[in-house]
Design goal:
Protein name: AcrR family transcriptional regulator
Helix content: 55-70%
Organism: Streptomyces thermodiastaticus
Keywords: DNA-binding, Transcription, Transcription regulation
Largest sheet: none
CATH class of the largest domain: Mainly Alpha
Order of helices and strands: HHHHHHHHHH
Pfam family, one: TetR_N
Number of domains: 2
Radius of gyration: 21 Å
Distance between the termini: 64 Å
CATH superfamily of the largest domain: Tetracycline Repressor, domain 2
Strand content: under 5%
Length: 234
């Protein structure tokens, strides 16, 4: 069956959009997000500068697309680890998801820097990035949720002065969990990403040599912070 002109144009648009994003990722790796330029990407692809604006009206639109792609790729990795570990103990599932996140970050350091590194000057991520950005956090929360359903979650105490904030957080994103779990999940999420960021950005150089063992030890502590039992040695 021959393709229609409309179908051919749609495929061409998909291919060109993918090529633009791939070149942009290459430039992120070489120059950083702050130096990303639509005109430079167009030149590298042999496109007229005016043509690229039909695909991405501005640099910020291109950055947003790259950010969503990175969040989705990382989220898919975390969710795949969550699915593959179904039926295992909660501590093992936690470890599997955390190690999948770390593995993705080490394999994609420039994309990790784009989503969790320094803000890009002059750029503010729009609300359209939120669903993709939430995927990693929700994969971790799902481990906690399953442990709670199984009666295997030791609910942490709510820190003094955070009772109202804990209730608000829980209502916003974990209404089926005890309010005390919400601030613990947020704190652990931030600590996990910071831990991985230190490794990705080289802050552990000449400080931590046994990186795999150190990571497993640390995420075990984070698991216990959210109340997971049997989460590694103390």
């Amino acid at each position: 069956m021959t393709s229609t002109p409309h179908g051919a144009r749609a495929r061409a648009r998909i291919e060109i959009t993918a090529a633009i994003k791939e070149e942009a990722r290459r430039r992120l790796a070489e120059q950083g997000a702050a130096e990303l330029s639509l005109r430079a990407v167009a030149r590298a692809l042999g496109m007229a500068s005016s043509a690229i604006y039909r695909y991405f009206p501005s640099r910020d639109d291109l950055l947003t697309a790259l950010i969503i792609d990175a969040y989705d790729s990382l989220g898919e990795t975390a969710e795949a680890a969550l699915k593959a570990s179904a039926g295992a103990a909660s501590g093992e599932r936690w470890t599997a998801v955390c190690e999948a996140i770390r593995g993705w970050a080490l394999a994609h350091p420039h994309e990790y820097a784009l989503i969790y590194g320094s803000p890009v000057p002059g750029y503010a991520a729009p609300a359209t990035t939120v669903p993709a950005a939430s995927r990693v956090g929700f994969a971790l929360i799902e481990v906690v949720r399953d442990a709670h359903r199984a009666g295997e979650l030791d609910v942490p105490a709510v820190p003094a002065g955070l009772e109202a904030e804990a209730a608000r957080m829980a209502a916003d994103f974990v209404p089926d969990l005890p309010p005390a779990v919400a601030p613990a999940c947020v704190a652990v999420w931030a600590q996990l990403l910071g831990l991985i960021g230190f490794e990705v950005f080289g802050q552990f150089t000449r400080i931590v040599e046994e990186r795999d063992a150190f990571f497993r030890h640390t995420i075990g502590g984070l698991a216990r912070t959210v109340g997971l039992r049997h989460a590694g040695a103390s």
